[in-house]
Amino acid sequence: MAPAPAAVTSAAVPIDGRPHVVIVGGGFGGVAAARALAKAPVRITLIDRTNHHLFQPLLYQVATAVLHPADISVPIRWLLRKQANVTVIMASVDTIDADHNTIALDGGTTTLAYDWLVLATGARHAYFGHPEWEHFAPGLKSLDDAIDMRQRFLLSFEAAERASAAAERDALLTFVIVGGGPTGVELAGMIPEVTKHALSGEFRRFDPAQARVLLLEGGPRVLPAFPEALSARAQRDLASLGVEVRTNCVVTAVDADGVIANGERIAAHTVFWGAGNQASPLGRQLGAPVDRAGRVQVQPDLTVPGHANVFVVGDMAATFTTDGAPVPGVAPAAVQMGTRAGRNIARALTGEPSEPFRYRNKGDLATIGRHRAVAVLAGRPLAGAFAWLTWLFVHLLYLAGGRNRVSVIVQWAWQYLTFQRGARLITGDTAHRLLRGRGTPGSPDARGQRAA
Amino acid sequence: MAPAPAAVTSAAVPIDGRPHVVIVGGGFGGVAAARALAKAPVRITLIDRTNHHLFQPLLYQVATAVLHPADISVPIRWLLRKQANVTVIMASVDTIDADHNTIALDGGTTTLAYDWLVLATGARHAYFGHPEWEHFAPGLKSLDDAIDMRQRFLLSFEAAERASAAAERDALLTFVIVGGGPTGVELAGMIPEVTKHALSGEFRRFDPAQARVLLLEGGPRVLPAFPEALSARAQRDLASLGVEVRTNCVVTAVDADGVIANGERIAAHTVFWGAGNQASPLGRQLGAPVDRAGRVQVQPDLTVPGHANVFVVGDMAATFTTDGAPVPGVAPAAVQMGTRAGRNIARALTGEPSEPFRYRNKGDLATIGRHRAVAVLAGRPLAGAFAWLTWLFVHLLYLAGGRNRVSVIVQWAWQYLTFQRGARLITGDTAHRLLRGRGTPGSPDARGQRAA
Fold first, then answer.
1. Cα–Cα distance measured from residue B385 to residue A395, given in angstroms and rounded to the nearest whole number
2. Residues A47-57: tens digit of each pLDDT
3. Which of A56, A176, B71, B343 keeps 20 to 30 A from B333, CA to CA?
4. Are residues B4 and B99 in contact, defined by beta-carbon separation less than 8 angstroms?
5. Rounded-to-integer distance, Cα B369 and Cα B213, Å
6. Given an 8 Å threshold on Cβ–Cβ distance, is B427 in contact with A68?
7. Which residues, in sequence order, are bridge partners of residue B272?
8. Which of B235, B237, B230, B236 has the alpha carbon at shortest distance from B216?
9. Chain A interface test: which of B74, B161, B282, B412 (most A C-beta within 10 Å)
């Protein structure tokens, strides 16, 4: 094992005879891997760039100012506080040297040696070769993403109240969502609820209900992973909320003025991105084959070819069901993979052979607005209010942290009783820069400093 | 009336025959002024740099990760949504031309004409001629301040878990609070509760309860506005929580390594400032006399000498009780002044003479830790659990927004039942810069970019 020159190894992690398992990423996969090793004779270091475990499936509700950021996140070290063999470290991992069993943290200032490595750093959104679009059309993966999206969303209305030209106001009140997968559908379905109810009566120059929401999907239908009948149902539900759904609609430009879709210019100051994913770039450092989305093509036991002590789980890993279909990038799959990786490490320590990963599909769910959803549960399609109640139940069940569950129930109940949105908070130094740039969130020529 | 060349006047505010009242600031004073004019034949434009009205008395609980930012704030336009004569605009005011009855917004790009002006932009913390100290010792006035303070507070523990040298870890776990007024006392009293209970068991290299909290007060006692017996009681209560209180202790340097107090160097990576206030600089533009803290010395009816149509209220105004004592910079005083200014405008419109402002002291309260407080109510001193319950009741009563009240009760109840802190969230791009700068929040030589 390579020497570890470093602060973190020598200090933060007491060295003893136990093998050292390093887990990178505190999302669903990483936490599941740590938990699967709770009783194993190992010492674990879990590293994450943030201090919180995030319930990603509800991120869109933070982005639309329905839930607080803290409602869908808990400190990772709080989650794992009772597991004495885990040390949680907040740091970013820059490089992996799988030949020497080390990783480098924080710009190479610290090196950490491992006996076993579990990589679970997920995916970011991808822009199909147009990284410059991100500036105008943010995606939704982290809490900072959601807070940024919420700020742009709320500032559009603030800027519209100040706008003097009708065309400018119309562009400020046009919201384009690119991508008709679950994230795009859920965002698109929530915006009309907020504009028609929560913001009602608060503006003097326009009615927020006149806001226009467009969902642009390049393929022939929204929710392509669902059965066709449910895609059609979701599209009807969205239309009944006032969302303009355009399928077979290809976006060829995204800039400060909006998008060009199927050759048509759509003037919109706010564009959200839900179209593509790209796995964390750490995976490419392993020397193993990756697929087009950058996911590592792992062995059946989730190890990396050529490195039997390195596992890749969750959205970073390309895996397949027993039918040969790709395992979807959803939370239950990440949990199952993390658990399998942890168990395989434990098995190796007792001399048992590793077991292959088998995905158990617990179903698919996507919610549309306030009380509609589509679902496939135990192979059966569901839609409408019952699917929505199922969605509610499942999400509350899996949301980590009892206090969060209570708080989410309070927020949701209050929202249903009053139609008010309480998480409508604009914070941060960038707000005024965005607001002043002719009210153009994301405008590249936005300038000016925040006043003292 | 001067012409208004501008987007805001011509567009956001429909012009009609009604006099135009411009209120700058959406805090306690500004909102009270708007409400006092609810039935007056005026059109009102309320301008604030943020989109939210803030319940400042609970800011310290956001800074210590007990409450969510959204728990103590509501959108200003939501608060005033039913008052049809108010238009709320999010913008920053740069200059006031009281001779021509105009203000300039957003770096001078927009000018707005008024018939009546109410200035209610409050105060910021002051550093006694050492503005460079702010970088190392942030104060607590805005929600962004509280989020910054929370980030530094939480990152200290994250960095301590990574620190290898004992001296570095000790400095990371030393919290210095400068200033023994209510803000300083409340911050100092809350930190031991968090370190001893909420963070308990989550770190592997140190016990958070070993964190050291010092409260440094330049004068002879903490809470100088309270009776001496209550100051002594507060000091005993703080000591019983483990806070080291030092009175007659003058800070002469604040830097990345800590402070120098009475000639002694105290190594501390986290220093919070609660020592001084400076009124918003807008007040100095009026050509009227200001006191040492920059507060405008207003007439008895709260108008500015020489400008009978300009009112200054809240922490920006220097006013006096009927006994000649200065009116304290507290929320009830700001509300009372805002109401008086609004009523005086309404009286002027019907030809009635203005009335002088008279401060009604509703009492003073400061809380210490989880269930202690000191108070003066109706002239009677109170301490202990009953004072604390009074504090709780009064704060819940005045907290704007029913949902917030529910949410705060949920957070507090949960915290009391479980000793957990749920709002322990580190967000924002600056976290990694702070964490990497040798774990030195606020270090001027902190460098490195956040990894992608």
1. 39
2. 999 999 988 88
3. B71
4. no
5. 13
6. no
7. B177
8. B235
9. B161
